[in-house]
């Protein structure tokens, strides 16, 4: 029998002739999502400007994507507020599993309609082969905001107008067109109350009172057991770290916690910003009734808790913990170290330490050659960093470097002095500007 005459092929051809829909209404997509178990859902098209920066990556994962369904699933508030991490993390893990099951059910429902779709994970596991670069397939938060599921609070979590920030998000990529006028739209107000309880609760000072955010500090501590923690642990076990001070480097509690992360699921070390947030129609009443009582019940147990805080040495987070939480134990761990020049340039804005840049006003020209070629202008001024492609303006200092040598220096595998002697790194301008630059990016 020829392949084109096979019953399976004939049935497939029959379906392709007219039964596979090329369009679906946003209302029907949302109804499918609610039927699958979501507490709320919104729909946007792939060409929405709010997600333009991740469009190519989405299409790389699922080239037929034409629409995205943002899924919102509620979490129970009291477990998240508990200072006992086992209780809070059980809720995180089970809620994440629920979001993934909702997404999977939605994909199944769409499949019965002949519509192809894909459900990237709500959280971990992620594409760890890309670590420390972008390890997620789709950024759920911008999709949710664009679809009208809430707005980003000062703590960088999406706050749903009803459920507050006690939600987890998922996204399903759909291979069907939707009408422009049917798409979700961002809500016209921010449910964030500006109370800054999240600022007070954050153990590493990642959430700034002026609205700025230090992603490196959050990543180093809260996601300790998801990513860099076990890498650091295994390197230490294999003797790749300096042996000095080994006796107190790993406490029994840390080893037990790491084993739990391997046998059950990685534990968030904080997420306190979610715990104390009073925003949302179903959450706000106790805060309005008695703000002090609310703070005493939710904020104080977290602030007063004795715990280990993970920080990059000489980072803003280390300074913050020493000043704000002297009763908490500091554990210094390696920061994120890039593997490529592209990763270095992309990650600078994430690991930049604004506090260490106080008083610095300089323009850096970088030129890389060898295994990777790139030119970039980095401006540090008013404790802000700007990274631009190409060489722009007059530099305060110019650095010309072999790409592999520079990455080796950043990863502390090679000496900058050795590199300069060998002419692998050449600097035009005072070295004090390079030293000041390095202080802004401790690792």
UniProtKB/TrEMBL annotation:
PROSITE patterns: 4FE4S_FER_1 (PS00198), 4FE4S_FER_2 (PS51379). SUPFAM superfamilies: alpha-helical ferredoxin, SCP-like. GO terms for molecular function: iron-sulfur cluster binding; metal ion binding. Pfam families: Fer4. Residues 183-212 form the 4Fe-4S ferredoxin-type domain. Keywords: Iron, Iron-sulfur, Metal-binding. InterPro entries: 4Fe4S_Fe-S-bd, 4Fe4S_Fe_S_CS, SCP2_sterol-bd_dom_sf. It comes from the Bacteria. This is 4Fe-4S ferredoxin-type domain-containing protein.
């Amino acid at each position: 029998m020829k392949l084109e005459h096979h019953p399976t092929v004939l049935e497939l051809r029959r379906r392709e002739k007219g039964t596979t829909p090329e369009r679906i209404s946003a209302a029907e997509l949302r109804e499918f999502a609610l039927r699958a178990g979501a507490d709320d859902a919104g729909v946007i098209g792939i060409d929405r400007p709010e997600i333009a920066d991740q469009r190519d990556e989405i299409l790389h994962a699922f080239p037929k994507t034409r629409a995205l369904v943002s899924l919102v699933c509620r979490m129970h508030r009291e477990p998240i507020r508990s200072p006992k991490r086992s209780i809070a993390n059980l809720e995180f893990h089970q809620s994440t599993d629920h979001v993934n099951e909702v997404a999977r059910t939605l994909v199944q429902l769409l499949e019965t309609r002949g519509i192809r779709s894909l459900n990237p994970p709500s959280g971990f596991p992620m594409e760890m082969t890309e670590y420390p670069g972008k390890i997620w397939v789709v950024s759920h938060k911008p999709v949710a905001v664009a679809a009208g599921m809430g707005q980003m609070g000062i703590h960088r979590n999406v706050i749903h107008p009803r459920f507050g920030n006690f939600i987890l998000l998922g996204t399903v990529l759909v291979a069907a067109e939707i009408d422009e006028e049917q798409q979700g739209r961002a809500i016209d107000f921010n449910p964030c109350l500006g109370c800054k309880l999240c600022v007070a609760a954050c153990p590493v000072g990642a959430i700034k009172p002026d609205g700025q955010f230090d992603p490196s500090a959050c990543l180093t501590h809260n996601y300790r057991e998801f990513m860099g923690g076990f890498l650091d642990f295994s390197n230490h076990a294999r003797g790749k770290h300096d042996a000095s001070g080994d006796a107190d480097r790993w406490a029994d509690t840390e080893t037990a916690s790491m084993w739990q992360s391997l046998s059950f699921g990685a534990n968030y070390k904080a997420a306190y910003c979610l715990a104390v947030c009073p925003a949302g129609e179903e959450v706000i009443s106790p805060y309005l009734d008695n703000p002090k009582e609310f703070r005493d019940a939710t904020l104080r147990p977290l602030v007063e808790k004795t715990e280990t805080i993970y920080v990059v040495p000489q980072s803003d987070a280390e300074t913050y913990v020493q000043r704000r939480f002297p009763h908490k134990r500091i554990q210094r761990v390696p920061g994120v170290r890039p593997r490529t020049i592209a990763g270095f340039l992309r990650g600078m804005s994430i690991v930049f330490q604004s506090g260490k840049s106080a008083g610095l006003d300089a323009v850096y020209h970088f030129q890389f050659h060898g295994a990777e070629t790139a030119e970039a202008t980095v401006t540090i001024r008013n404790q802000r960093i700007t990274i631009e492609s190409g060489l722009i303006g007059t530099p305060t200092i110019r650095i010309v470097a072999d790409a592999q040598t520079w990455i080796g220096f950043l990863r502390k595998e090679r000496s900058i002095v050795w590199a300069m002697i060998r002419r692998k790194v050449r600097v035009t301008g005072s070295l004090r500007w390079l030293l000041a630059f390095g202080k802004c990016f401790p690792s």
